[in-house]
Amino acid sequence: MQRLSLGSEGNWKQLLRHEGEACVSIYMPTGTADAAQTAGTRFANHVRSAARRLLEFEVDVSGAEEILSPVQELPHRGLDLVSGRGSDGTGGAVGIFARRGDVYVADFPGDAPEEVFVDRRFRILPLLPAAEAAAERLHILALEPPGVRVIRASRLSAEKIDVPDLPHSIEELPQRSEDERHLQFHTGTPQSQRGQRRAAIYHGHGGGGVDDSLQKKDLLQFFQQLDNVLAPWLHAHGQDPLVLAGTEYLLPLYRQANHYAHLLDAELSTDPRRRTPHELRDAVWPHVEAEIELQRRADLDRLRRHVGTRAASTLLTEIAAAATAHRIEALFVAPDARRWAPRLTPNEPPREVRLHRQAGHEELLNWAAVRVLNGGGRVHLQDAETLPQDAVAAALFRYAE
Predict the structure, then answer these.
(1) I need a surface site. Which of 49, 194, 201, 232 has the fewest CB within 10 A?
(2) What single DSSP character describes residue 198?
(3) What is the domain-level CATH number for residue 15?
C-alpha cells in the first residue's frame, strides 16, 4: 500500500500515469457517525462490486483476485475507514486505487461520492477538489529589519524556510561607508500620534539622526538584493503567490524593488515580528483563496465569451481532439456527468460519444481530465447548470486551429 499526498508537490499525480489495463477506483465517505457505523460493510460491498466489474471488463477471475486481494487486506494494514479528514475532524473521504501490482490510498477532507469505478485509468475527478485545495500554497515575505523571514504556508501548515543565498540583514549591504557602519537599524520606534508604529529609523552611536533619503536608499538597495535572489527562486519552485507583511513604510519600498510576477496586491500591514508563521498565514490566507477564485472566474468568463469561436468548445469530440493534442488550457467538467466512447488512446481522439456504456467503452470526461492535467492544463469541476449551452464539459484552448 502506498499512501498518496495531495498538493502541488504531492505524489498523487502518479495516478495520472497509469493507463492501458484495468484500474479500480473506490471512493468512500468517512468521518460521519453514519459512515463509521457502516464502514466495514460498505467496504466489503465495494470490493465485491469491483470484482464483478472487473469480470465485466474482461479480466479473468485470477486477475481480479490478484488486483483485489491487496485491497481486502487494507483494513489490517492500517487503513482507517472511520475517522474523518476534515479540518474539524468530522467528514472526509478515502480513495482506494488498485491495479495489478499497485495499491494506492488517499484520505482527504471534503465530500466525495460513494462509488466503485473500473476503467483503463484511475478515476481522478472526485479527488480534484481536495487536491486543488491542498495545492493552494503561498509564500509570505515578512519584512522585519534588520532581517526578513520567508514563510511557506498552505491551508494546513506554515513554516519558516531558508532560501539559499538570500540576504537576511541590511548589514549585508556591500561597501558601506565608515559613517554608515556606525548606524544601527531599529524597528522599536515610539508610537505616532495616531497610535500606529512609525517606520523604522536609523540611529547613530552618538545619537545623531539620518535623513530619510539615506534610509530609503539603503532599504531599497537591500530589497533589490533580496528580490534578485528571491524572485528567481520562487519562479523555480512553483511560482506560488507571494504576500508581503510589514509596516506601511516598508511595503511600497519593496514593491518598488520587486520583479516577481506573482506578488499579490493584497498585503498585511503589521509588525511581523509579533506574529508566528501560523498567525501570519491565518491573516493572509483569505487573499489567496480570493486569487484562486478569481482564476476560476476568469477562466469561466473567457469560456463564455469564446464559446462559438475556435478558441473554446462544448462539443465533446472537439474537446477530446484538443485534449489529445495537449491544446486545452482549462477544462470544465460537471462532476456527476458520464460520457462513454470506444477504446480511448493517448494519440487518437474518439469519433463518437455515447450517453450509456457499452462493451469496450471507456469514460471520456475522466480521460480528458487526465490528458489535460498531464499536459499542464487546469481542470475545474463546475455544475452543469453554470456551463454554457447546457454542456457537461467545456474547454478553453491554448490556441485556435
Answers:
(1) 194
(2) P
(3) 3.30.960
Query: Rounded distance, CA 247 to CA 269, Å?
Result: 5
CATH code of the domain covering residue 401: 3.30.1330.30
Q: How far apart are CA 210 and CA 205, in angstroms?
A: 11
Domain coverage including residue 265: 137-285
Report how far apart, in Å, the C-alpha atoms of 187 and of each of 37, 84, 88, 181 are: 57, 45, 39, 17
Long-range contacts of 89-93 (CB under 8 A, 24+ apart): 89/31, 90/31, 90/32, 91/29, 91/30, 91/31, 91/32, 92/29, 92/30, 92/31, 93/27, 93/28, 93/29, 93/30, 93/126, 93/130
The answer to whether residue 345 sits within a structural domain is yes
Query: Are 129 and 153 found together in one domain?
Result: no
Do 108 and 148 fall into the same domain?
A: no
Classify residue 134 as exposed, middle or buried by CB count within 10 Å of its CB (0-12, 13-18, 19+): buried
Q: Are 268 and 333 found together in one domain? A: no
Burial class (CB in 10 A: 0-12, 13-18, 19+), 27: buried
90 vs 28: CA distance, rounded Å: 14
Residues 331, 395 contacting (CB under 8 angstroms): yes
**Which residue type occupies 58?**
E
Which residues contact residue 284 at a Cβ distance below 8 angstroms, ignoring those fewer than 6 apart? 138, 140, 153, 243, 245, 266, 268
- One domain for residues 117 and 160: no
53 falls within a domain: yes
Q: Which residue has the cell 468568463?
A: 301
Mean pLDDT of 259-283: 91
Domain boundary among 135, 164, 193: 135
Place of cell 487503513: 79
CB 321 within 8 A of CB 401: no
| pLDDT interval class at 65 (50, 70, 90) | very high
Number of domains in the chain: 3
Q: Are residues 141 and 122 in the same domain?
A: no
Q: Write out pLDDT tens, residues 315-370.
A: 999 999 999 999 999 999 999 999 999 888 777 788 889 999 998 899 999 999 99
For 80, 362, 375, the CA distances from 371, given in Å and listed in that order, are 31, 14, 6
Helix (H, G, I), strand (E, B) or coil at 23: strand
Domain shared by 218 and 279, yes or no:
yes
Shared domain check, 196 and 125: no
Whether omega before 146 lies within 30 degrees of 0, making that bond cis, reads: yes
Taking alpha carbons only, the member of 10, 43, 47, 34 closest to residue 124 is: 10
